[in-house]
Amino acid sequence: MPTNTFYLDDARTEAVTASWNMFFRNFRLDYQGQELGRLTPAELKAGHEFALPDGRRLLVRLQQKFGAQGLDFQVDGRPLGGTINDPLTQIKTAFVAIMLIAGLNVVLSVMAMLGSVEFLVAIGFGGGTLAEGLVYAGLGWLGKFRRAAWAFYAALGLLVLDGVMLLGSDQGSAGMVVRVLLGIAIYRGATAARQLRTTAGVVNTD
């Protein structure tokens, strides 16, 4: 039975635990070890609000959008850490996506250059793709650790450019779905980074 625990406070003292069976059947929600309620799959997809003991409202729903599915927990409109709409979670997901692209470029490029793998050389791996992988890695680092939205957007633009250049080729069509999914994750990370920087700017000017 899958189980996820989220926290309502930064000190991680208020725990909300969700557990369910396959396909989100028998979905159960516990608050501080006490059952808060149960939801059917249909109710979970539609979203349901629970009243916490102190009067706060906890929204629970299964969010399903193209390229992303996950639990959305919000307390009075604020996403909980680790849930699908949490900006920090979106940034981490974008970082992982970019580093996956970077890692593949670097590893396959090194294999092509040092191992003289004809297949990899034939589809374009070499010094150029090695440098591209390092650029991806740098952009991912800036995006995650500096919360630089522009770095995520730059990585997304590079991914789109690569996809356009490969249109019509076998490797381009085969990997298009993966590129789209990675691109969605990177875009969500960019918007989350911009949101966090905007929020920080508002706080600093008060």
Features of the shown structure:
alpha+beta, transmembrane helix, Lipocalin
Mean pLDDT: 90
| Helix-strand pattern | EEEEHEEEEHHHHHH
Which stretches of 5+ consecutive residues score pLDDT under 50? 202-206
Number of helices: 7
Helix content: 40-55%
Number of strands: 8
Strand arrangement, largest sheet?
A: 1-2-3-4
What profile does the largest beta sheet have?
A: 4 strands, antiparallel
Q: Label the structural class.
A: alpha+beta
Q: How would the global form be characterised?
A: elongated
User: What is the total number of structural domains?
Assistant: 2
Characterization of this structure:
The protein is of the alpha+beta class and 206 residues long. A 4-stranded antiparallel beta sheet has the order 1-2-3-4. A 4-stranded antiparallel beta sheet has the order 5-6-7-8. The chain is elongated. The N and C termini lie far apart (46 Å). α2 runs antiparallel to α4 (127-145), α4 runs antiparallel to α5 and α5 runs antiparallel to α7. It is 54% helix and 21% strand. Mean pLDDT is 90; it is low at 202-206. β5 (48-51) and β6 form a beta hairpin. The chain has 2 domains: 3-79, Lipocalin (Beta Barrel), CATH 2.40.128; 87-205, no CATH class. This is DUF2157 domain-containing protein. The chain crosses the membrane at residues 94-114, 120-142, 149-167. Keywords: Membrane, Transmembrane, Transmembrane helix.
